[in-house]
């Protein structure tokens, strides 16, 4: 097959491994696939955190209704739901730093406003700041602005804790996150 030993040695040495260029191409393809996977997983994690926020807001809504049934008025803060034993702890946002203690409205906690009629809270507005501005869940919320009452059950400014739930491009604080999911009663 080979005419001399020199040709035989060359033929055998060239078939023992991959050239450097082929290895770089394979590594590049693996890197590209890995980056696509990471981007997709990041979006899924963001959507999962937003779904948790909606669940937390619904728990707060149920607790506020229970509080109303027992007291004839809605709470003035989420803390009232804890002391009234409707919920065991003030819920934290999934991105809240460890050690966060909720005492008022912030993107690390949840937003709460109430409307007072003759000294008795008769309406509430609960919100959570989303990460995903394209979430279809933002099309299913109340879009109440408790700072001026537009879109809310009572059409004037709420008594305390006001925030804008109509914004779908920034969080409930008006900055930072991608949208504000809210409900109002």
What does this 3D model show about the protein?
This protein has 185 residues and is α+β, with helices and mostly antiparallel strands. The protein has one domain. Helices cover 37% and strands 13% of the residues. The chain has a three-stranded antiparallel β-sheet, covered by helices on one side. Strand 1 and strand 2 (120-130) form a beta hairpin. It is elongated.
Q: What's the β-strand tally?
A: 3
Amount of beta strand: 5-15%
Uncertain spans: none
Global outline: elongated
Distance separating the two termini:
89 Å
SSE string: HHHEEE
Q: Helical segment tally?
A: 3
- Give the domain tally: 1
- Rounded mean pLDDT score: 88
Query: What strand order characterises the main sheet?
Result: 1-2-3
Structural class: alpha+beta
Helix proportion range: 25-40%
In short:
This protein has 185 residues and is of the alpha+beta class.
From the structure above, extract its key features.
185 residues; single chain; alpha+beta; 37% helix
């Amino acid at each position: 097959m080979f005419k001399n030993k020199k040709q035989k040695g060359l033929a055998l040495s060239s078939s023992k491994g991959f050239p450097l260029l082929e290895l770089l191409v394979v590594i590049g393809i693996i890197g590209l696939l890995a980056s696509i996977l990471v981007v997709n997983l990041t979006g899924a994690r963001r959507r999962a955190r937003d779904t948790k926020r909606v669940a937390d807001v619904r728990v707060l809504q149920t607790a506020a209704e229970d509080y109303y049934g027992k007291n004839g008025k809605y709470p003035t803060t989420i803390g009232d739901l804890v002391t009234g034993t409707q919920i065991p702890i003030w819920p934290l946002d999934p991105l809240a730093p460890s050690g966060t203690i909720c005492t008022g409205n912030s993107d690390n906690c949840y937003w709460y406003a109430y409307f007072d009629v003759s000294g008795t809270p008769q309406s509430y507005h609960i919100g959570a700041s989303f990460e995903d501005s394209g979430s279809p869940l933002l099309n299913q919320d109340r879009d109440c602005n408790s700072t001026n009452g537009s879109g809310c059950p009572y059409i004037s400014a709420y008594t305390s804790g006001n925030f804008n739930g109509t914004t779908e491009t920034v969080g409930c604080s008006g900055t930072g996150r991608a949208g504000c999911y809210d409900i109002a009663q």
